[in-house]
Design goal:
The complex is a heterodimer of chains A (322) and B (480). Chain A has one domain. Helix content of chain A is 74%, strand content 0%. Chain A is built from 16 helices and no strands. Chain A starts with a helix and ends with a helix. Chain B is an alpha+beta fold and 480 residues long. Chain B folds into two domains: 384 residues, no CATH class; 61 residues, Dna Ligase, domain 1 (2-Layer Sandwich). Chain B is 30% helix and 22% strand. In chain B, the strands form six sheets. In chain B, strands 3-22-21-18-17 form a five-stranded mixed sheet. In chain B, strands 5-4-19-20 form a four-stranded antiparallel sheet. In chain B, strands 7-6-11-12 form a four-stranded parallel sheet. The two termini of chain B are 27 Å apart. Classes of the chains: A mainly alpha (322), B alpha+beta (480). At the A-B interface, helix 1, helix 6, helix 14, helix 15 and helix 16 of A face helix 2, helix 9, strand 7, strand 9 and strand 10 of B.
């Protein structure tokens, strides 16, 4: 597999995953907002913080109002993580992958791009938002399903999964992290119903509410939600599950020593984390560390597979080594 | 939808004869279309357009800013030719490419044709595409141009002429294949009614052609399609062909020439040797060590690897020497010289500006002639005299006088037309035909080729870069 192709596969799925996560986040938040009691301190700006885009947002918009935030997250091309930018980038990546991907995959990604391009701007309107974002999620899932069903689970597919699970693990930690931040001023009232609603929002945005209730608890309680979304091995959006998936992919790749070693650090950190009794500030520090772990896993993968041949001073020795 | 009101304007129409009746190979089509009303036909056309958008069959216009691709304009009325007539064209194309390859090989090895006084040394001296670096080399099978796209046109009297030989990096074959797929999706009934010869073995044949070039017979060859990248107008095609052949699609920076002079690609697991490169990059950009040093598209050392026989390149570097509109005028003589045969397909009568007498004629008749530069393709840099302004003609006069070797002229042909679906129904539009010819161990000619059509009324320019579209091309077995 060409290094460039591996890198494009990896980024294509990262972008697709990011677009879907953003769509989920907006839809879940919109639902939660409708349930919150008047005066509850929750703002749309939280979404910007989750995405880690405060600085960029402030450069382009004067206020954190709903319309600006929606435009920024969904259709603003100046935001490289907006849904439109992500789908556009995924499509440009997949354009260079047509000979690797099943033909229908390109057609569906292209159709998703055409859909997003034509409709995304309308997601600013509350009445149309839900359906548009749901359709983006559905269309992206149909690409995932197609790849799972109609392409060989070969090296190319490992890079597809790697991109997906690194991006997903990162997003899950961000969502847990930001919720901690929002809840800081309210910690003195732990059973505040508004807080339960927010945690429910987190679960719902990850499509995890139902599985959480089935496997963890019928009550939505902060500590348990955090514990579940970090450590549950079975639900496909928990950090633990994502790390396990990354491990199974990396193990199949050649010369995987360094990336695997970095990955173990992240796995140990999650396993050793005691959620109970953590102050929100400590939790924030922990999640920050997990995000840094993920960034290092990404760097190791890039070094080993995307830039492997560039590092060897004598390319022929690399042949012998490979 | 019927052809009762189809305007006949004294030109040759591919589907309708002078009496306004369908030509025999097109009869089944019009019987079928008679059952359609214009609205239904337009609905099918809209379905095709939507399919093209989703399938992402696109080409790039360099000047189009951020939107790097445009949908491929496709006309749903096919261009139809009887197999009887086609077989003669097929034979003519084979003859032509065989002679051209003998000619190229001779130019780089001894230049017998020059010594025998058949081909003037001045033409060679002025050729931008003659590469000193290729002298003394004989590629496998003596073949330099492995993939050729020959442009054919038909004049008012029905004669089919060769307009140009594209021997560098001809494109369009993927559209030929995609057009057929679209037609099968949209008019499956038609394919049951008439015996339309298939076109879809092209990529298999291309693979065979390339595999036969491998310097390592007996091993399963690793074949790569070398593309300049997604901003190239034919990127869609590069990726399409790689996909269909099971070849690797590579860009210059993916490749490296190592100390053993072999070409390697950079993979996640180290370097892997490449045996055959189907390059879709012009000579100039192929190897910054040998040609343009500023090229970021090519691979440093590639020419060295090729000269030492460590990798095969198709088309071979330097093959473009025969893809020159001045060399073109000599092709009938070239065929006679190497094969001792008369050309089956005639050239369009041409005037060479390097010849004082012919130049005088050209300058005196600029308002009647088409003048073309020797080395441009894609319809760039040419002038259609009767449609040019006096100022444009004056500018061309100066250019010709400044560099006569670089120009040739031809009479303005009355290109044939075919019915094309426009808003008001069927209307005649000018077209040409580009069949593709493969040669390495064996020869192969596509069944038909890519029909390009000038979608604007009256326009004679069919190039996709100049607003042209395309049609599916049917070679049909005639019932007797």
């Amino acid at each position: 597999m060409l290094s460039r192709v591996a890198e494009n596969l990896y980024w294509m799925t990262r972008y697709m995953e990011r677009a879907e996560n953003t769509a989920r986040l907006i839809n879940a938040t919109s639902q939660v907002l409708l349930d919150l009691p008047r005066g509850a301190s929750f703002g749309w700006d939280v979404l910007i913080q989750v995405a880690g885009l405060d600085k960029l947002f402030r450069e382009h918009y004067p206020t954190f109002d709903e319309t600006s935030i929606m435009r920024f997250l969904v259709s603003d091309e100046k935001n490289p993580s907006s849904i439109v930018s992500c789908i556009h980038n995924a499509r440009e990546n997949s354009r260079t992958l047509r000979e690797v991907l099943p033909r229908t995959a390109w057609e569906r990604i292209n159709a998703l791009y055409l859909f997003v391009n034509g409709r995304a701007a309308h997601a600013v309107e509350r009445a149309r938002r839900y359906n548009i974002l749901e359709e983006i999620i559905e269309r992206r899932q149909s690409v995932v399903g197609l790849l799972a069903d109609c392409m060989s689970h070969d090296v190319a597919y490992y890079f597809i999964r790697l991109g997906r699970f690194i991006e997903r693990a990162d997003m899950t930690t961000r969502m847990l992290d930001i919720n901690a931040a929002v809840l800081v001023p309210r910690q003195q009232v732990p059973e505040d119903p508004a807080m339960a609603l927010l945690w429910m929002g987190v679960l719902k945005s990850l499509n995890a509410y139902q599985m959480y209730r089935r496997h963890a608890s019928v009550h939505v309680h902060g500590t348990e939600v955090v514990n579940y979304l970090l450590k549950d091995p079975l639900f496909p959006r928990t950090v633990r599950h994502c790390l396990d998936e990354i491990e199974s992919c990396v193990s199949e790749l050649p010369h995987h020593g360094a990336p695997l070693k970095t990955l173990r650090i992240a796995q140990r950190r999650i396993a050793g984390m005691k959620v109970d009794g953590l102050t929100p500030a400590q939790r924030h520090e922990y999640l920050d560390a997990v995000q840094s772990d993920l960034a290092r896993v990404h760097e190791e993968i890039a070094t080993e597979y995307f830039h492997f041949c560039e590092q060897s001073p004598d390319p022929l020795k690399a042949v012998a080594a490979g | 939808m019927n052809i009762n009101n189809y305007p006949l304007n004294g030109l040759y129409d591919e589907l309708i004869d002078a009496a306004g009746k369908p030509r025999p190979p097109a009869k089944a089509l019009f019987e079928y279309l008679a059952a359609f009303d214009p609205a239904e036909l337009n609905a099918r056309r809209a379905a095709v357009d939507a399919a093209i958008m989703t399938m992402g069959i696109t080409f790039t216009i360099y000047s189009d800013g951020t939107n790097i691709d445009r949908a491929w304009p496709f006309d749903i009325i096919p261009r139809i030719m009887g197999n009887h007539e086609w077989r003669r064209v097929d034979a003519g194309l084979r003859q032509r490419l065989k002679a051209l390859n003998l000619f190229i090989n001779d130019l780089y090895n001894g230049q017998k044709i020059v010594k025998d006084g058949v081909f003037p040394i001045e033409v060679l001296a002025g050729s931008k595409n003659f590469r000193e670096q290729c002298k003394g080399i004989t590629p496998r099978f003596g073949v330099w141009a492995h993939i050729c796209g020959t442009d054919l046109v038909r004049d008012a009297d029905g004669t089919i002429y060769v307009l140009e030989d594209n021997l560098r990096v001809p494109s369009g074959v993927s559209y030929m294949l995609e057009n057929r797929m679209l037609m099968k999706r949209l008019f499956p009934e038609l394919f049951q009614k008439s015996e339309i010869l298939p076109v879809d073995d092209y990529t298999t044949r291309l693979h065979e052609t390339l595999a036969a070039l491998s310097p390592y017979p007996g091993e399963r060859p690793v074949i790569a399609v070398l593309t300049p990248g997604i901003y190239n107008s034919a990127y869609f095609e590069h990726s399409y062909l790689a996909q269909q052949m099971g070849a690797v699609l590579v860009e210059g920076p993916d490749l490296v020439v190592a100390e053993d002079d072999c070409v390697y690609m950079k993979t996640i697991d180290g370097l892997r040797r490449i045996d055959v490169i189907y390059r879709r990059i012009d000579d100039d950009f192929l190897d910054p060590e040998s040609f343009r040093p500023d090229s970021a598209l090519g691979v440093p050392g590639l020419m060295r690897a090729w000269r030492r026989g460590k990798v095969a390149i198709a088309n071979a570097p330097g093959a473009g020497v025969a893809d020159d509109k001045v060399v073109y005028t000599f092709v009938p003589k070239i065929i006679k010289y190497y094969l001792d045969e008369d050309a089956i397909l005639p050239n369009v009568p041409s005037y060479l500006c390097m010849d004082a007498k012919e130049r005088e004629y050209v300058l005196a008749n600029l308002d009647k002639l088409v003048v073309k530069p020797a080395n441009e393709s894609g319809g760039y840099g040419m002038i259609i005299g009767p449609r040019a302004t006096p100022a444009e003609r004056e500018r061309f006069r100066e250019q010709i006088l400044a560099d006569p070797r670089n120009y040739m002229a031809q009479p303005t042909l009355s290109l044939s037309t075919a019915p094309t679906l426009v808003d008001g129904g069927l209307a005649p539009r000018h077209l040409d035909l580009r069949p593709f010819v493969l040669q390495s161990e064996n020869m192969y000619v596509t069944t038909g080729g890519l029909t390009r059509v000038a979608m604007r009324e009256g326009s004679l320019v069919v190039n996709s870069s100049q607003g042209g579209g395309s049609k599916d091309t049917w070679i049909v077995e005639e019932r007797r």
